[in-house]
Amino acid sequence: MNAILLQMDLATHILIVDDDAGIRSLISSFLDKHGYRTDTAADPHEMREMLERRRYDLIVLDVMMPREDGLTALRQLQRDDAPPVIMLSAVGSDVDRIVGLEMGAEDYLAKPCNPRELLARIRTVLRRRESKSAAHEAPVAEPNELPEGFSHFAGWALDIIGRTLLDPQQAMVPLSDSEFRLMRAFVEHPRRVLSRDQLLDYATGQESEHYDRAIDVQVSRLRRKLAGHEGGAELIRTVRNEGYMFVPVVTKR
Q1: pLDDT at position 210, please?
Q2: Given CA atoms 69, 75, 76, 78 in this order, what sign does their dihedral have?
Q3: Burial class of residue 222 (count of CB atoms within 10 Å of its CB; 0-12, 13-18, 19+)
Q4: Interatomic CA distance for residues 107 and 85, integer angstroms
Q5: Helix (H) or strand (E) holding 39
Q6: 253, 154 Cβ separation under 8 angstroms
Q7: What is the mean pLDDT of each successive set of 10 residues along the chain, which is 253 residues long?
Q8: What is the pLDDT of residue 174?
């Protein structure tokens, strides 16, 4: 009995927030069968009460809810220790999806969705979060010690395999999965004008849906992240009517 309780405590804990009781029950039951612990909340207010009582590894958050919508609730979740969020919405337009991602959601899925697709998205987001946590725990190189196996540019260093970005002070710069893929695309194609379509292909793959606006949003978010570190604001240049260029020379060691 104790072993079963311990296993339950160690299971990934997911909070499902939706005003539709049927959807909450369906998602909860499906995830429970696949080894996850789940709790449900009928609205953002109940979600915040539950977040005060316990820690969750991920939140599945509906967008269209009465009184307070999911995007407003997502905005209030933006803190360093907040769990990753997957948005669900009956409104699956490009604009709504982009807004959700720009506000910090890890993924966005249109309703009605196949529970198996939601499960796959959850597993991807959790793997991404685990990789990010492992990168934070990795030892940082000494200030005068340039790491080998990195791509170097303007004092910065990017490890493609280890998914690690170091600024000129050798401090680790945390990147989301989409930010890392975009950074990798720039570093692998330096000093070239890359169109939005090229960046979409390089950063997200040929099978992805193509949204020009999505790339602009991702570049803007990456720029803001880099601008908080020495020399980061000048790395990516906008080329009017063409796309973007990664300005510095890149060397590999």
Answers
A1: 47
A2: positive
A3: buried
A4: 7
A5: strand 37-41
A6: no
A7: 42 92 94 94 93 92 88 77 85 70 82 88 83 52 54 90 86 85 91 87 57 75 87 88 90 81
A8: 87
Question: What is the C-alpha separation between 245 and 216, in angstroms, rounded?
Answer: 13
- Write out the two tokens for 102: 């720009």
Contact 225, 179 (CB under 8 A): yes
Taking each helix axis from N to C end, the angle separating 115-137 and 21-33, rounded to the nearest 10 degrees, works out to 60
Strand partners, 17: 41, 61
Strand 156-159 versus strand 164-166 pairing type: antiparallel
Q: Whose structure tokens read 């940082």?
A: 140
- Please report the sign of the dihedral spanned by the C-alpha atoms of residue 249, residue 250, residue 251, residue 253: positive
What is d(CA 88, CA 100) in angstroms, rounded to the nearest whole number?
10
What's the rounded Cα separation, in Å, for the pair 132 and 239? 31
Cβ count within 10 A of residue 212: 14
3-state secondary structure of 166: strand
Per-residue b or e along 26-64, where b marks 16 or more CB atoms closer than 10 Å to that residue's CB: ebbeebeeeebbbbbbebbeebeebbeeeebbbbbbbbb
**Domains of the chain with bracketed CATH:** 2-134 (3.40.50.2300), 139-252 (1.10.10.10)
Q: Rg for the chain (alpha carbons), in Å?
A: 20
